[in-house]
Amino acid sequence: MQDIDLIEFFKLIWRSKWVIFLGAFLGFSSALIYNFKAPELYSAEASFFLPSESNAKMGGVGQLFSAQSGVSVRELLPALSESRKLKIMIAKDLMPVLHTASISQTLSYLNLSSVKLSLQKSIYQLNYESPSPKISVLVLESFIHNIEMLNQELDIAPQKILITVIDGPVEPKKPIKPRKAFNVFVGTLGGFSIGLMIALFLNIRRIISPVE
User: Fold this and answer.
1) What whole-number distance in Å separates Cα of residue 34 and Cα of residue 130?
2) What residues contact 165, with CB distance under 8 A and at least 6 apart?
3) What is the mean pLDDT of residues 43-56?
4) C-alpha–C-alpha distance, residues 156 and 81, integer Å
5) Residue ranges of the domains in the chain?
6) Around Cβ 143, how many Cβ atoms within 10 Å?
7) What is the CATH number of domain 42-167?
8) How does DSSP assign 58-113, residue by residue?
9) Taking each helix axis from N to C terminus, what angle separates 180-202 and 17-37, rounded to the nearest 10 degrees?
């Protein structure tokens, strides 16, 4: 089997350099168009903790629920955060800001199912993404406030203040999406790779044939 001369190989590929450059240019242009048209998303975050288990015992309705199912406030919080009642309360808070006509329209715009609640070493992390940096903050502030309101309304825990906020939400300055520089890099690299493969295909017979 004859060895392929690398110098000759690159010379053959270079004959179709316009294909490679065209592919890179198209990839670069596609990334720019995507960055321009893709909606920007801003992310707000907050963190809080609950009282210790000894102080977070349920009271009233919560105590009855706990006695029947054996759950604590800490275990109930994720279900409470996903409840429709809480989402409606948040929507009511945001209606004057969004100037929406109904709760259903507000809920559709906010997409509150995207509010993420996670627990890391007894610290709860809240995250919400929105096209508006202001709305991303207002949603989390309303979330925390209305969890407290539900606690008092349903008498989940004996203490009036259920949540202790560590870091409140701060209005983000820059969008997290689209990742413009990353998209341009990936688009250009992808276009270059496709152009290179086309150039190889166009010259495959010359590459595998013996060089005279």
Assistant:
1) 18
2) 46, 47, 48, 144
3) 76
4) 13
5) 6-37+178-208, 42-167
6) 23
7) 3.30.70.1130
8) --THHHHHHHHH---HHHHHHHHHT-HHHHHHHHHHHHHHHT-SSHHHHHHHH-GG
9) 150
Determine contact, residues 118/124, Cβ cutoff 8 Å.
yes
* Average pLDDT of the residues in 70-95: 86
For all residues of the chain together, what is the average pLDDT?
A: 84
What is the separation of C-alpha 55 from the centre of its chain, rounded to a whole number of angstroms?
34
- Residue 6, classed as helix, strand or coil, is helix
Q: How far apart are CA 156 and CA 179, in angstroms?
A: 42
Encoded tokens for 12: 């053959």
pLDDT of residue 117 exceeding 90:
yes
Q: Yes or no: say if 58 and 66 are a contact pair by the CB < 8 Å rule.
A: yes
- Non-local CB neighbours of 202 within 8 Å, separated by 6+ positions: 16, 19
Let me know if 34 is exposed, middle or buried by CB neighbors in 10 A (0-12, 13-18, 19+).
Answer: middle
